[in-house]
């Protein structure tokens, strides 16, 4: 790996998905070939719809044992999901069409290969991509994103989810290409409109957990329409195993904080981001840096707060969670209805993910549902929501490649700035 591409840990770290290595405009060059240039220009002009994938989990063992009625049928070939409703003794079927449908027997590998693997390839081509998991609590968001078992005996578990599989694919491709690259990851949790750094060293996280007066990590405007998370830890990673360890550490921290603060994972959002810089050479022998970013987002449970047992003491918590999810819904509505004002600024979640909703990022939403009759109301609301989100158009753009010399110059000036404590 080119050590000159190594980036610092901590400090001022941008989470804006549109952020590419900084440089003076003069040194930024777009090296896209004529063909891809015109096709991406075409994409840019027309806009590309957010891709929406629907996954229905199987009945749990308990549900199956008590013969819970199933009200969902998935037709993967036709990309359709049908929900059967019984209103006043009349059976009403509602059918929804998605970009891809994965039924209860679908395996993690299948979902990854068909839906996520092409997105990971686009990150390596220099796009920023975001994958959201959206759905009611207990429908398989975390199972889909992280997966079941951890790595055992060095073997890759068959129920590994989207995150470890993406990491594996990224490293497999870069290694097969013998590429020179640098990679960094961030992992944060958004709970109650407060950001926790899941990768911060122990002392810092303890401080945050123990001392509630400590100001949470701040989300700052970067003055260019994006945001950055001040002080968010960036870990440089060189192997897939390092990322798996980081993921385990972050998830463990999430669980510890949950216990200490009596939180519930279903009420928090987590964002795991991987940024990759890859060195390329122009035909003239000039070294250029290509940058791509993948955001993997596990959203809080989408169920109606009033039904999930929120009571007075939890009002703020419920209200705030509601605020992020409600704002996400409002942003989606505003984008779909082309209403002038899109309320990105109304919640931290939508500020953080602004570029993924109507911006230059390629976005995919994995909506998860349960097949059980007892979840039907929430399932219909998820189906409606996800179906609506299909109409959001983004204008994906490949990040501009930068001259390596300019990237290094930028990094040196940033080191100077940090040394001066500015
Ligand atoms: N497709 C699936 N195949 C097999 N088991 C699944 C599947 N989806 C979910 N499960 C199981 O269902 C349970 C609930 O899943 P999970 O915890 O991922 O839900 P969630 O939507 O992330 O919930 P929360 O919002 O509370 O975090 C877990 O035991 C998980 O292993």
UniProtKB/TrEMBL annotation:
Residues 23-33 have a biased composition (Basic and acidic residues). Residues 49-392 form the Kinesin motor domain. The keyword Cell membrane does not apply. ATP binds at residues 135-142. SMART domains: KISc. Residues 1-46 are annotated as: Disordered. Pfam families: Kinesin. It comes from the Eukaryota. It is found in: Cytoplasm, Cytoskeleton, Spindle. GO terms for cellular component: mitotic spindle; spindle microtubule. Keywords: ATP-binding, Cytoplasm, Cytoskeleton, Microtubule, Motor protein, Nucleotide-binding. GO terms for molecular function: ATP binding; microtubule binding; plus-end-directed microtubule motor activity. Its main location: cytoplasm. PANTHER family: KINESIN-LIKE PROTEIN KIF11 (PTHR47970), KINESIN-LIKE PROTEIN KIN-5D (PTHR47970:SF9). Belongs to the TRAFAC class myosin-kinesin ATPase superfamily. Kinesin family. KIN-5/BimC subfamily. This is Kinesin-like protein. It comes from Corchorus capsularis (Jute).
């Amino acid at each position: 790996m080119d050590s000159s591409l190594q980036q610092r840990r901590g400090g001022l770290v941008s989470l804006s998905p549109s952020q590419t290595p900084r440089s003076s405009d003069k040194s930024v060059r777009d090296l896209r070939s004529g063909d891809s240039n015109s096709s991406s220009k075409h994409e840019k002009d027309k806009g590309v719809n957010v891709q929406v994938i629907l996954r229905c989990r199987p009945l749990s063992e308990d549900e199956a044992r008590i013969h819970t009625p199933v009200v969902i049928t998935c037709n993967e070939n036709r990309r359709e999901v049908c929900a059967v409703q019984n209103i006043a003794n009349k059976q009403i079927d509602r059918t929804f069409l998605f970009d891809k449908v994965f039924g209860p027997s679908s395996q993690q590998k299948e979902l990854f290969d068909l839906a996520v693997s092409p997105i990971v390839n686009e990150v390596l081509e220099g796009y920023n991509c975001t994958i959201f998991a959206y759905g009611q609590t207990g429908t398989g968001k975390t199972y889909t994103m992280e997966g079941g078992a951890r790595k055992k005996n060095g073997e890759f578990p068959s129920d590994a989810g989207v995150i470890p599989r993406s990491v594996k694919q990224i490293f497999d491709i870069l290694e097969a290409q013998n590429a020179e690259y640098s990679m960094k990851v961030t992992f944060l949790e958004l709970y109650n409109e407060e950001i926790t750094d899941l990768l911060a060293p122990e002392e810092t996280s303890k401080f945050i957990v123990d001392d509630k007066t400590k100001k949470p990590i701040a989300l700052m405007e970067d003055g260019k329409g994006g945001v950055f998370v001040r002080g968010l830890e960036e870990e440089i990673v060189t192997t897939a195993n390092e990322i798996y360890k980081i993921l385990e550490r972050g998830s463990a921290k999430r669980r510890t904080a949950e216990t200490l603060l009596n939180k519930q994972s279903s009420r928090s959002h987590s964002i795991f981001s991987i940024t990759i810089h890859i060195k390329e050479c122009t035909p003239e022998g000039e070294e250029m840096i290509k940058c791509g970013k993948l955001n993997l987002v596990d959203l809080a449970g989408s169920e109606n707060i009033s039904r999930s047992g929120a009571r007075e003491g939890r009002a703020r918590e419920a209200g705030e969670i509601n605020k992020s999810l409600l704002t996400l819904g409002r942003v989606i509505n505003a984008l779909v209805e082309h209403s002038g004002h899109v309320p990105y600024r109304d919640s931290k979640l939508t500020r953080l993910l602004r570029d993924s909703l109507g911006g230059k990022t390629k976005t995919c939403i994995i909506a998860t549902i349960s097949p059980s009759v007892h979840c039907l109301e929430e399932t219909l609301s998820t189906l409606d929501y996800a179906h609506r989100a299909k109409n959001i158009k983004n204008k994906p753009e490949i990040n501009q490649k930068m001259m390596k010399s300019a990237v290094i110059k930028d990094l040196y000036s940033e080191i100077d700035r940090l040394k001066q404590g500015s």
